[in-house]
Amino acid sequence: MKNSLVFVLMLFIGACSSNKNEMKTLSGQTFNPKQNKANVVMTIAPDCPLSQQYCKNFSALANKFERDGIVFWGVVPGNYYSQVELNHFVDSFQFNFPLVLDPEFEFLKAIRAKVTPEFFLLDDNLKILYRGKMDDWAIAFAQKKVQPHYFYLENALQDFVNHQPIQTPETEAVGCVIEY
Fold first, then answer.
1. Which end of the chain has the least Cβ crowding within 10 Å, N or C?
2. pTM of the entire structure?
3. What number of CA atoms fall less than 13 Å from residue 95's CA on the CB side?
4. Position 43 pLDDT exceeds 90
5. Own/partner long-range contacts of 158-167 (Cβ < 8 Å, ≥24 apart)
6. Where are the alpha helices (DSSP H) in the chain?
C-alpha cells in the first residue's frame, strides 16, 4: 500500500513538472518539491481556526530545522479562496513559506490528505515518512488541551535528521474536513 502511494505521488510530481498542472505558489512561481532534501507540508484552509492557530508553531519548527535542508510549505485545497483572502491569511498569520495552490486537489489526493491542518514529512523521494497532527494539543475539532505534551511532527523531524526510523509514522489529524 505504501509503495503504491509513493508511486502515485511520484507520478503526480512528474506530471506536474511537465504540463499545465504544475504546482504554483501564491505568487505564481513554479514549485517542485522533488528538488528538496525533505519537505514538511501543512494543509491549510485560511478560514479554518486550527490552520490559523498552528501557523506560529509551524514557523517555529521551520526555524529549528531549516539548517538541515528541510523545506516547509503549505498547500491550499481547491479554488475556494480569492487572492485577497489568501494574501490576508499570509499577512495575518505570518505564513512565511511557499503557499502552493492545489485547485484540482491533485497533490492532496495523491497524499490522501483529509483535513486542514494535516502535516506530512516527505523524504527526497517523496515517500511519506510521517502524516498526521503536529502535536496532541487539539484532541477533537472543538476540544483542546491547555498545552500539548506530545510533539509528533517535531519528533518525526528529529528522527529523520538523526537518520533514525520514525517512531510514530502516523497519527489521526484533527481539523476542518477537506471537501473534495
1. N
2. 0.88
3. 29
4. yes
5. 160/38, 160/70, 160/121, 160/123, 160/129, 161/65, 161/68, 161/70, 166/121, 166/129, 166/130
6. 2-16, 49-65, 83-92, 106-110, 152-161
